[in-house]
Predict the structure.
Amino acid sequence: MNPLTQALISGAMSGAVYALLATGLVIAYHTSRVVNLAHGESYAVAGMVTAAISGVGFSLLLAIPAGIAAAMLFSFLVERVLLRPRRDWPVSGLILVTLAAAFLIRGVLGAAMGVDGFSFPRLFVGPPLRFAGGALPLQGLGLVAIGLAAALAVTLFLQRTQLGRQLRAAAENPDAAELMGIDVDRIRTLAFALAGGLGGLGAVLLVPLVSVDFESGLGMTLHGFIAAALAGMSPSLAIVAGFGLGLAEALATTYFGALAQDPIVFLLLIAVALWQSRLIRFGGTARA
Amino acid sequence: MTAALAVQGLSGGYRSLAVFREASFAVEPGQTLGILGPNGAGKSTLLKTIAGLLPTQAGSVLHDGVAMGGARAHRRARTGLVLVPEGRQILAELTVQENLDLGRAAGRLGKPEFAARSAEVLAIFPRLAERRRQKGGALSGGEQQMLAIARALLLDPTLLMLDEPTQGLAPIMIRQVLVALQALKGRFAMVVVEQNRAFLDTLADVTLTMRNGRLAPDEKGTNQ
């Protein structure tokens, strides 16, 4: 087996999930100015709901949409029930509210389903594709292809559709958008539900290869946030950053060991943050 | 005849701070009302309150005879109560065409009517037609003001409020904005807030002044 090829395959698979998570996080951030620290919980909710429904004998064709719908509902409720009534709070307070929501749903999932890991059958079954000394499971191929397609579809949605333009308008200037007849609250709710759906999609594609438990959400939030930060909170760059993060992690694990993975990823984050800060003056004005 | 806008005993501001108090006036359909006043007098806060961006502290706003109550800004815009805010507030990251297309969000014009209105608006502001693919942030101040007015026209206003439309513009651009607004005068009611008396003297039918949060008749009263 070629370790480089296998690292690239593994990195592309986790990178697809990070791209989905980062894209969702960025969309929700732009419409609300809040970094949703409960975002990764949509991954855990979708994974565990899908596992639970599939586990009692229902078809994956029912379990997967139900899992994604549950993730969308959770994300929708975070915005509708927790954030919207507190829209006049400072952003830092709202971020803490999302952190509280993350711990709450984590507790609910743990109490409802226990602390064991769950998984469910693969959607794409067959012998793995072997090339250049590596093996790519069909589920992994589906994950990369669908993840990339979904993240690109969201980018196109934002650029090419009337609703996408309304979302960008609400993100850039909520008051101006309201004056144009755009219901900014509705747009925010839509953005959060869409973000939850992307996290859920990542879960139903990746969980059959790994597993999910009630604590999986926090790690996914962290990875999604790192990718989003590396992308400078840009939706289109979030795809590239997600895949880049996945590849960096996999290469670090392959060549320096699993313990080196987190330090290398965080060093990468610090390096990019320092580079980005060189472009910004105090007060937030970009240097020419 | 029902007034396009009837403001009765309106007070507003930020949280518990009242910026203007007990404003009362009416604007008839097709009439242009000017409001003069220095910086900080409360003019912009008054318009934002009428538009629904700020909550009403007391009093009422009736648009075409319908009480606006606590309706948010997007609902008021969908009834044709349209504000071009101070500083234009165009969407800098969207292209000129995308800024204009957002006018569909209000849903006041059907697809063919919107297309016809777009053509009409671009005929009024030909500079925008030349710059359709450029981002709003790349336009000059005068072009941004034209875009802000053009965008408002695509909402099919029955009442158009403009907050300091000449702010920061060169004299030649002020003349162009004035010509455009004069061409539109009479089609719908307008409320124009300005510090530029000459501009209002040319445009407004009636002018009020605002000082320290209170509205009063202008010394010139009716202009025409």
